[in-house]
Design a protein that fits this description.
Layout (H helix, E strand, L loop, with lengths): L3 H5 L2 H10 L5 E6 L2 E6 L5 E4 L8 H7 L5 E16 L5 E6 L10 H4 L11 E14 L17 E13 L2 H5 L13 H8 L3 H13 L3 E7 L2 E6 L3
Helix pairs in contact: 6-7
């Protein structure tokens, strides 16, 4: 079915939608002023979101109370950088050292973290093998700034998935090494093996879900504790 949604979607979005489609699903379905990526035979609405979640806010506000909804978010667990010329010929390819994980979804959940407690919302993180297609090495602009080519993400394979249907599912992503004692965001980053900004977003989201609570300070650093821990 052709439509505005199809015309605007990139190759990653289209490939993930094809991967998620099941027999009996309908694609690009108009509903209450919006277009839904997939409508399952059992009525679940599936939205493929390759970028930030904030654009989904109005759609969720309108539809979530009356429909079960699933946000499917692809994360590049493995990626290859492929440079091509203007004719599409491959100039080079290399494996990126960056590896995504289910935790990366917290970069997106900051838009509406408390909504994960809604009984009708499920967030599914697809761990993917991707090619990032880019132009030849970018040069510099006249101002001296290096040009950045964001490239195009293309799905190669799906290697796993993590389903978050409740705050308890999000809490399960916390490592046991944290224990029951209060911890700082820096200690959280160390335990998770992630960058500090992502740890801050994890803490923010889990506090909004009432998974973590304030536990005072250690020096100037705020402390968090598991609720019930």
């Amino acid at each position: 079915m052709s439509g505005i949604g199809v015309l605007r979607e990139g190759p990653l979005h289209a490939a993930v939608k094809d991967f998620c489609a099941r027999p009996g699903d309908r694609a690009e379905v108009p509903m209450e002023g919006y277009v839904i990526d997939l409508v399952r035979a059992d009525g679940e609405l599936v939205e493929i979101q390759t970028g930030g979640f904030s654009p989904l806010g109005p759609k969720l506000d309108t539809l979530l109370d009356g429909h079960r909804m699933r946000i499917v978010h692809p994360v590049p667990a493995e990626r290859r950088i492929v440079r091509i010329d203007e004719h599409g010929e491959v100039l080079s390819s290399r494996r990126s050292p960056l590896r995504g994980a289910a935790l990366d979804v917290f970069d997106r959940l900051v838009s509406f973290p408390s909504l994960l407690a809604h009984p009708n919302l499920t967030v599914e993180v697809l761990l993917c093998r991707e090619d990032h297609i880019r132009a030849p090495e970018a040069g510099r602009s006249r101002s001296g700034r290096r040009r950045r080519d964001p490239g195009q993400r293309r799905l190669v394979d799906v290697v796993g998935s993590v389903v978050l249907g409740s705050p308890a599912d999000a809490a399960a992503l916390l490592p046991d090494a944290l224990g029951a004692q209060p911890f700082t965001t820096r200690e959280l980053a160390t335990a998770l093996g992630c960058r500090m900004m992502l740890a801050q977003r994890v803490a923010y989201c889990l506090r909004a879900m009432d998974v973590l609570a304030d536990a005072g300070k250690r020096g100037r650093a705020p402390l968090h504790r598991r609720v019930g821990g």
